[in-house]
Amino acid sequence: MQRVRISSQQSPVQRLGHPQMTLSPRFRLASSMTPSSSFRLWSPPPESRGPLIPGLPDDVALNCLLRLPVDTHAACRSVCLRWRLLLSDKEHFFTQRKALGLSDPFLFTFAFHRCTGKIQWLVLDLARHSWHPIPAMPCRGKVCPHGFGCIAFPLDGSLMVCGGLVSDLDCPLHLVLKYSVLKNKWTVTARMHTARSFFASGVIDGRVYVAGGYSADQFELSSAEVFDPVRGDWKPVASMGANMACYDSAVLGRKLYVTEGWMWPFLASPIGQVYDPKNDSWAPMAVGMREGWTGPSVVVGSRLFVVSEREGMRVKVYDADSDCWDIVGGSSVPERIRKPYAVSANGNRIYVVGRGLRVAVGHVQKSEFGDGNGNRNGNGRERFCIQWQEIDAPAPRVYGDLTPSSTRIVFA
After folding, report:
1. What pLDDT score was predicted for residue 225?
2. Could you give the CA distance from residue 93 to residue 181 in angstroms, rounded to a whole number?
3. Which CATH number goes with the domain that contains 210?
4. Please, are residues 316 and 322 in contact by the beta-carbon 8 Å criterion?
5. Is 45 helix (H, G, I), strand (E, B) or coil?
6. Are residues 172 and 87 in the same domain?
7. Contact 247, 198 (CB under 8 A)
8. Cα–Cα distance between 399 and 331 in angstroms, integer?
9. Do residue 149 and residue 87 come from a single domain?
10. Residue 376: its pLDDT value, please?
């Protein structure tokens, strides 16, 4: 977390309307964002209608082929024409998977090259432990990867990327892009009212909330807004009442928790705010919660966990009744997972992606040690333990210089 830099020169606010609109002399949306015709399934010619797999009915064979890891598709397309027709088009492939009710978790990781700053989305198939890329976001300029807000709609099979910062201009963006797994492409959607970077974001009851961040002149914002996917528009919501950029945020109990995190030289306690969409109101975060929030967070069940950047990468869990953080039993994140890292969760599993795209998964369980009943300590608080396992999914050598900025779970 860096301190606010106040500039006497007003930076231009970049407004995105038309997909071809120039954002800055060095930042534009790629021309591939022009509207395209709707997708139509192509019917293979008669000469290609042999069996998908000899000796098997086509429905059984299709069920088998739809389970192939995405990174094997290039090799498998050479088997025959029907395989090529099925595996050459990701939209066709994932549409067929959805029709058969197949759905697996994928770990989408937004990464950047440490030297060049080039950004890239990569996907880890958590069922088969294999990596594959997706189309690049349509950004032609150099951007700051940490400035974006990345939001997942896990069951919808889509991602949203909001805001951001043009690196060489310190210029925030109104940018909002959406990626669909079924269509395997990025589209431009309704822009935010306020250009912002380094802001809080979260999904509550299907709506996307963003708050705070840095404005065009690098002052911290207090404004917030909400996006309704059904209506396709943004609307302002109550102001936070405190100007702040976001270190981390989480949705817990249908509320958005936002913390600015600790800042060097740690002379003041960090600010934290909590938004309740039911009342459209903000309230200060509990002191213990904001002071102990020292790492990226995930929600497992109904509890908030952080992978601490200060306590040797140990995992902590927050107890709302006592306003305290408890160290989770078990070891720290494996040493091979190096900072900086990004975290995500699915069920009782916490995924940590480190430099070079090394991945570890932590299995969270209620601790067997406590007051004799198996789930609480002497203070009456639930205790947890975590067991770590490194995922054997070696990334290609070209990924070795990549550093994760954000990671999200999406089902497809």
Report:
1. 98
2. 10
3. 2.120.10.80
4. no
5. coil
6. no
7. no
8. 27
9. no
10. 53
